[in-house]
TrEMBL record:
Site (Lowers pKa of active site Tyr) location in chain: 98
Classification of source organism: Eukaryota, Metazoa, Chordata, Craniata, Vertebrata
Organism field: Channa striata
Name the record gives this protein: alcohol dehydrogenase (NADP(+))
PROSITE patterns in UniProt: ALDOKETO_REDUCTASE_2, ALDOKETO_REDUCTASE_3
Pfam families referenced in this protein's UniProt entry, alphabetically: Aldo_ket_red
EC number, UniProt record: 1.1.1.2
Function statement: Catalyzes the NADPH-dependent reduction of a wide variety of carbonyl-containing compounds to their corresponding alcohols. Displays enzymatic activity towards endogenous metabolites such as aromatic and aliphatic aldehydes, ketones, monosaccharides and bile acids. Acts as an aldehyde-detoxification enzyme. Also acts as an inhibitor of protein S-nitrosylation by mediating degradation of S-nitroso-coenzyme A (S-nitroso-CoA), a cofactor required to S-nitrosylate proteins. Also acts as a S-nitroso-glutathione reductase by catalyzing the NADPH-dependent reduction of S-nitrosoglutathione.
Protein family per UniProt: Belongs to the aldo/keto reductase family.
Keyword NADP: yes
Active site location: 68
Main location: membrane
GO biological process terms on file: aldehyde catabolic process; glucose homeostasis
Subcellular compartments: Apical cell membrane; Cytoplasm, Cytosol
Keyword Transport: no
Length: 343
């Protein structure tokens, strides 16, 4: 990896056979569609229409989170499309949301979920994730800060939060629970105390961050992996101007030409063919339609290996701050920060 890339901070669940199996099977026995619509950075005013377009195009999986600030608008889309007399039944669509960092205390977990359910206009979620293993200061402020602008953290143990998540399943408010942005040690830490095992780990993954070791770790423990930012994240605020562009990689372009597909479709197919659930974000109708057209071709073994070989350990989603003129990971000092471990 180049020095320039380092300055930006760098850091298989059962593979399903192609056919009609465009889903992963969770350890609860429930099916989770391999392709979903991501809604991170899908701004209000656009996300409602994006969700409607996705459901019309054949998506059966919508990924949400309270911190995205758009669940109420997504709820409007779901209300218009799901239920008696509508185009889809509620049980036809797999809906995920996430518990934010200021709601890790047990007494806050159920109220946070109930707010999400109210916004989404749903009676239950298919999957609820702990968004990050580390917590912010308890309260109503999503990003609590000191006077100097630095974040206020809380050291509550995520295992305590997990016990509260289990109660949501027992009450029928969620069908499954899982983790997001946890590392392999933290997954095992949860498993050591879990009465209800996590079903899913959602993490950043794309050919530059193939997550081969973490994927194997999840498979061995019965977790399905979900990949966010599967095409990279070029619109994030802390982007470095000189970083490589994933979709311009010659290996990917060559395979795309062979199959008469776009580079994005090749990357998404690579993930789903590994059995990784993938949630590309878009508010553009043509891209939403294109992204789901993945299941009419199969990459060959050498093509899969060639894409995996692009791995650079390159992590895009690491919020950065400026300290003494240098850009450093914002949350790296927290004892539960997940990215200090290899995977």
């Amino acid at each position: 990896m180049s020095t320039k890339m380092s300055r930006c901070f760098r850091s298989f669940t059962t593979v399903l056979q192609r056919g009609m199996n465009d889903f992963a099977v969770l350890n609860t026995g429930r099916k989770m569609p391999l392709l979903g619509l991501g809604t991170w950075k899908s701004e209000p005013g656009k996300v409602k229409q994006a969700v409607i377009w996705a459901l019309e195009a054949g998506y059966h999986h919508i990924d949400c989170a309270a911190i995205y600030g758009n669940e109420a608008e997504i709820g409007e889309a779901l209300q218009e499309t799901l239920g008696p007399g509508k185009s889809l039944r509620r049980e036809d669509v797999f809906i995920t949301s996430k518990l934010w960092n200021n709601r890790h205390h047990p007494e806050d977990v159920e109220p946070a979920l109930l707010k999400t359910l109210k916004d989404l206009k749903l009676e239950y979620l298919d999957l609820y994730l702990i968004h990050w293993p580390y917590a912010f200061q308890q309260g109503d402020v999503s990003f609590p800060r000191k006077e100097d602008g630095t974040l206020l953290y809380d050291n509550i143990d995520y295992k305590v939060t997990w016990a509260a998540m289990e109660k949501l399943v027992e009450k029928g408010l969620v069908r499954s629970i899982g983790l997001s942005n946890f590392n392999s040690h933290q997954i095992d830490d949860i498993l050591s105390v879990a009465s209800i095992k996590p079903t899913v780990l959602q993490v950043e993954s794309h050919p530059y961050l193939a997550q081969v070791e973490l994927l194997a770790h999840c498979r061995e423990r019965g977790l399905v992996m979900t990949a966010y930012s599967p095409l990279g994240s070029p619109d994030r605020a802390w982007k470095c101007p000189d970083e490589p562009i994933l979709l311009q990689e010659p290996v990917i372009a060559s395979i795309a030409e062979k199959y008469k597909k776009s580079p994005a479709q090749i990357v998404l197919r690579w993930q789903t063919q590994r059995g990784v659930v993938t949630i590309p974000k878009s508010v553009t109708q043509s891209r939403i339609k294109e992204n789901i057209q993945l299941f009419d071709f199969t990459l060959e073994a050498d093509e899969m290996k060639g894409i995996t070989a692009l791995n650079k350990g390159w992590r895009y989603i690491v919020p950065m701050i400026e300290v003494d003129g240098k850009r450093v990971p914002r949350d790296a000092g927290h004892p539960h920060y997940p990215f200090n471990d290899p995977y």
